[in-house]
């Protein structure tokens, strides 16, 4: 209840209780006022006493009703908060099929990145399979978030970087922006390929068959206000930083990206 509402409640309570109490006191003590020649007949005193009692009773009943309503509202509010909290614990995930739909979802999330990209390129083939539009969106976001956004990529030896090289040159990226990109080389490493953005969303992608070089299906998990999803993505980021990256070799960007 707001402060203004409380003031009105107390005023109403006073306007009903005080006159009623005053009437009761007056009717009981009226005999003492006969000294001042101000003495009412008994029937009037009874009427005043009854009216005073009714006013006090009505005021007390209204006060009890107010407390009961406040208690119910508080209970409903607590139940709503519990329901909302329980709902937010439901894991948020989405399965996306088709490289075009996967690309659209990824670009949308890339455009909201603020802090860190963590990505793997552990594919069986050496040809680049990620579309140029993805690298254009990625490079643009790195340019946009000056000195804030970093990019980390763990890749297998011999991986083709042609598409990202072309996209970065067309933007173009500056040497300072290349310096915020870190590449870790591995030999014959294999994990699910994934992209983690800001500990907020992760895409885990894989082909439908061994002969398909493109990622045709992806699992997207987004934290939002979901505590379980947040913990999962944070744990995955910690694994990437503390377990995966140290196994790779940090390589110089200049010969790798030819800038």
Helix content: 40-55%
Q: Enumerate the strands of the largest sheet in spatial order, edge to edge or round the barrel.
A: 1-7-6-5-2-3-4-8
Unreliable sequence segments: none
Number of strands: 8
Mean residue pLDDT: 76
Helix/strand order:
HHEHEHEHHEEEEHEH
Characterize the main sheet.
Answer: 8 strands, mixed
User: Which class do the helix and strand fractions yield?
Assistant: alpha+beta
Strand content: 15-25%
State Rg: 36 Å
Q: What coarse outline follows from CA principal-axis ratios?
A: elongated
Number of helices: 8
State the end-to-end CA separation. 64 Å
Question: What would you note in describing this structure?
Answer:
- The protein has 259 residues and is an alpha+beta fold.
- It has helices at residues 3-29, 42-88, 99-110, 132-144, 162-170, 175-178, 227-244, 253-257; strands at residues 93-97, 116-121, 150-156, 181-186, 193-197, 201-206, 217-222, 249-251.
- Strand 5 (193-197) and strand 6 (201-206) form a beta hairpin.
- The model has no long low-confidence stretch (mean pLDDT 76).
């Amino acid at each position: 209840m707001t402060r203004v509402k409380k003031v009105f409640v107390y005023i109403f309570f006073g306007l009903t209780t005080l006159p009623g109490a005053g009437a009761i006191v007056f009717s009981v003590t009226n005999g003492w006022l006969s000294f001042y020649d101000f003495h009412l007949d008994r029937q009037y005193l009874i009427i005043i006493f009854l009216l005073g009692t009714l006013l006090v009773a009505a005021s007390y009943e209204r006060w009890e009703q107010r407390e009961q309503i406040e208690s119910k509202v508080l209970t409903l509010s607590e139940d709503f908060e519990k329901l909302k909290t329980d709902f937010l614990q439901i894991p948020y995930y989405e399965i996306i099929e088709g490289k075009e739909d996967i690309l659209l979802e990824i670009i949308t999330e890339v455009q909201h990145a603020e802090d860190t990209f963590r990505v793997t390129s552990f594919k069986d083939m050496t040809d680049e399979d990620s579309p140029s539009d993805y690298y254009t969106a990625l490079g643009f976001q790195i340019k946009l978030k000056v000195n804030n956004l970093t990019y980390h990529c763990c890749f297998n030896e011999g991986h083709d970087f042609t598409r990202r090289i072309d996209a970065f040159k067309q933007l173009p990226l500056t040497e300072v922006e290349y310096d915020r990109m870190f590449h870790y080389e591995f030999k014959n490493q294999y994990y699910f390929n994934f992209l983690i953005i800001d500990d907020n969303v992760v895409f885990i992608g894989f082909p439908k068959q061994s002969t398909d070089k493109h990622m045709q299906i992806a699992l997207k998990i987004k934290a939002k206000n979901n505590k379980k999803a947040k913990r999962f993505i944070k744990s995955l980021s910690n694994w990437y930083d503390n377990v995966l990256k140290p196994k790779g070799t940090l390589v110089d960007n200049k010969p790798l990206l030819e800038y």
